[in-house]
Design brief:
The structure is a single chain. With 344 residues, the protein is an alpha/beta fold. It has a domain of 240 residues: Rossmann fold (3-Layer(aba) Sandwich), CATH 3.40.50.720. It has 14 helices and 12 strands. Strands 3-2-1-4-5-7-10 form a 7-stranded parallel sheet. A 3-stranded mixed sheet has the order 8-9-11. α6 packs across α9.
Length: 344
């Protein structure tokens, strides 16, 4: 008879959570995992490859009464669930309810029913704020609350809730996490300054970090780590977009002046990121291996068909640029936010 699950995973249907389950399946360890998910057809479809091995608890972090059974007798809680941009910025009330209040509900349930558990939380590079001029980041750097960045504010508050709990805890501040086929070219791309220094980490390497953390709890306990891909995964946003556009058959990244913001985003280089790698040995990808897979995921026919229409596609995308819209309508408050103190 197999032992009962001792790992509780939230966010199981998200990109990292799904990859975590896949890797646990390959390692023949799915029986150790219970997932907390909302009851829906979409959820069941995403979990279908794993349903014969995992334990499923249907609940919602915003409903404390639905968490009891899921939080009993667990050794590790991996809290990956949350509302992310753009929805977090479009619906700040939902962001607060899920990302802050939901985290508090989960912490309190684990404190009550599994008081010796390790609570692992996926935070984000967003907590460091705009690092365009000071791109080298360590976990000792001050956290920066950026006005109206609801996602970042929620991460900072959730971190505080966890650190002030009675549980053992570990926080991974995730860098820019990149997958294959899960990012769409949209208007969101314009809020990132082109000269933003980026350090990416792939979804599969990030999931590997969580898989490997299961057996290295003592070294992670009550510590914060920056999780990034390392020096071989560093690039400017403009160069990243150039490689992505080339893979899509989109040509150069040529857009009108003021299409891209010039400040108030996040990202940077994790100067202490190797500390987590030395414990968990999770890195396998570089920028080159990532873009090899990225390019391979785009059908050749798509590139061929896209090339003649690249100009039209970029014209359409330009119409989605919030920084450019703000500049054109003379919205001085948003102009100052995106570009600094300039006058229209």
């Amino acid at each position: 008879m197999s032992s009962p699950p001792n790992i509780l995973l939230t966010g199981a249907t998200g990109a990292i959570g799904s990859e975590f389950l896949r890797q646990m399946q390959v390692a023949n360890r799915l029986g150790e995992v219970a997932v907390l998910v909302r009851d829906s057809k979409k959820t069941k479809k995403k979990l279908r490859p794993f349903l014969d091995k995992i334990t499923v608890h249907y609940g919602d972090v915003t409903r404390p009464d639905s968490l009891t059974e899921a939080c009993k007798n667990v050794n590790i809680v991996m809290h990956l669930a949350g509302i992310i941009p753009p929805l977090s910025e479009e619906n700040p009330e939902l962001c607060r309810k899920v990302n802050i209040e939901g985290t508090l509900n989960l912490v309190q349930a684990v404190e009550k029913y599994s008081p010796n558990a390790l609570f692992m939380f996926s935070s984000s590079v967003v907590v460091y704020g705009d690092r365009l001029k000071t791109p080298d980041i360590t976990v000792n750097d001050p956290l920066k609350k950026v006005h109206n960045d609801h996602y970042g504010l929620a991460k900072i508050e959730a971190e505080s809730i966890i650190q002030n709990s009675s549980l053992r805890w570990s926080i991974f501040r995730l860098t820019a996490i990149m997958g294959i086929g899960n990012h769409k070219i949209s208007g969101i791309m314009f809020i990132v300054p082109l000269d933003t220094p980026m350090e990416i980490c792939t979804i599969r390497d990030t999931a590997t970090a969580y898989v490997n953390s299961i057996d290295r709890q003592k070294e992670l306990e009550n510590k914060i780590f920056n999780l990034g891909g390392g020096a071989s995964c560093r690039i400017s946003y403009k160069d990243f977009m150039s490689r992505a556009f080339k893979a899509y058959g989109m040509g150069p990244v040529n857009f009108p002046e003021y299409a891209f913001a010039r400040q108030n985003f996040h990202c940077g280089y994790y100067m202490d990121g190797d500390e987590l790698e030395e414990i968990l040995h999770f890195r396998s990808d570089t920028l080159d291996t990532y873009f090899e897979r990225f390019r391979a995921s785009v059908p050749v026919i798509q590139r061929v068909v896209t090339r003649p229409f690249a100009g039209i596609i970029k014209w359409f995308l330009t119409r989605l640029s919030e920084p450019l819209k703000a500049y054109k309508r003379g919205d001085q408050e948003r102009i100052n936010f995106y570009f600094g103190n300039i006058q229209k």
